[in-house]
From TrEMBL:
Name of the molecule in the record: N-acetyltransferase
GO molecular function, one term: acyltransferase activity, transferring groups other than amino-acyl groups
Keyword entries, A-Z: Transferase
N-acetyltransferase domain ranges (all copies): 6-50
Gene3D superfamilies, alphabetized: 3.40.630.30
Xref: InterPro entries: Acyl_CoA_acyltransferase (IPR016181), GNAT_dom (IPR000182)
Keyword Heme set for record: no
Amino acid sequence: MKYLKNSLCYVADNNTEVVGVCVLNARDGNNIELFNSAVSPEVQGLGVGKVSAQGYA
């Protein structure tokens, strides 16, 4: 799992359970790579994924 060495995992929660995750990898000083993004079906369409993407772009 050497490729995960420079990765960060961010978790979105609603104060009681995890509702989303986002895994990012630093490619170099100016670029990041999105490895994984997932949002629970119960909150899809409510902007959880959009906030994750905007927060790290």
